[in-house]
Amino acid sequence: MDAKKAVTIVFCNAVVLLLATVAAQACLPSDRAALLEFRSHLNEPYIGVFNSWKGQDCCHGWYGVSCDPTNRRVSAVTLRGISEEPIFQRAKRKGVMTGSISPAICELAQLSGVTLSDWEGISGAIPACITNLPAMRHVDLVGNKISGEIPANIGNLLKLTVLNLADNRISGAIPPSIARLPSLTHLDLRNNGLTGVIPVYIGRLKMLSRVLLSGNKLSGQIPESLTRIYRLADLELSMNRITGPIPPSLGRMSVLATLNLDGNLISGEIPGSLMTSSISNLNLSGNLLGGKIPNAFGPRSYFTVLDLSNNRLQGEIPESITTASFIGHLDVSHNQLCGKIPAGSPFDHLDATSFGYNRCLCGTPLGDCGK
């Protein structure tokens, strides 16, 4: 073999090896096809997030697409309508996207995260096939016009840690299977049209730190099982149709910091345990709570917000409230309270609106007593 032919063979082999290497590093053709089908159901005219979705390698340079470096499979699709990234800064505006979520996204077999947040215009239902993606850890569809129901088999996603469907038009009940998500830490379903009750077995989700269900049409009582989620820090159930009493065990949760139950039909008395708990933001306004404000405050009582307004509370404001270590905002207006407002902190920085529309409260900042 002459030297020229040998060089040619070596060169050809190098080219073949290079092409093979490039092919091995490119994304899977089926993943690329699924992404293009997914894109074809969406329209985003202002920012140009899909302008880079060109070429054979969807793992390189495709905006919002992430791949597993070991196998070059698509692992996440992250498209936010509000972002500080350069593509948004150049456009000098937030994004608007219309269309729907194509079931083609379910063909991305190793997808672990999908974020389509704050586009305002994405509509249609969540594809039920999304529950067949075993690697899924993160679903964030907040701030759109998504309708239909939460997929019934959402409990199949055993690795799911975040489920954020807030600010959409989702209806129906919260699927009971949601109680089978052992890794779930963040559940945000606020401001939808959800009906029915909070699943009774939600307390099985021991990793939950946030349960945000405000602004729906949920009914029934607060499940006692919620109080057994020892990591729970934020519980927001406001603006629903929840009835029954407040479980006293909510006040014995070790890390619960926010408890918003305002705008419901909750009745009974306020548990004294809430006054000396870890809760610092407590909003019970706009319910049917009766009885007296618990005389259970002490040095452990620390509230940035304590809102008990618009209920049916009677009797006096308890003297023990002056022993609280801090109360930033207090509102007991629109009740049936009577008697003299205690002197000193926290009342020395509050105005009359915090105490108005009661039966016979008096003292600073209202009028003098005994006239």
Automatic annotation (TrEMBL):
PROSITE patterns assigned: PROKAR_LIPOPROTEIN (PS51257)
Bilayer topology: Single-pass type I membrane protein
Keyword terms: Cell membrane, Glycoprotein, Leucine-rich repeat, Membrane, Receptor, Repeat, Signal, Transmembrane, Transmembrane helix
Domain Leucine-rich repeat-containing N-terminal plant-type: 29-68
Cross-referenced InterPro entries: Leu-rich_rpt, LRR_dom_sf, LRR_N_plant-typ, LRR_R13L4/SHOC2-like
Domain spans labelled Disease resistance R13L4/SHOC-2-like LRR: 128-269
First and last residue of the signal peptide: 1-26
Top-level taxon of the source organism: Eukaryota
One Pfam family cited in the UniProt record for this chain: LRR_14
Compartments it resides in: Cell membrane
Family of this protein: Belongs to the RLP family.
Official protein name in the record: Leucine-rich repeat-containing N-terminal plant-type domain-containing protein
Naturally occurring in which organism (per UniProt): Brassica napus
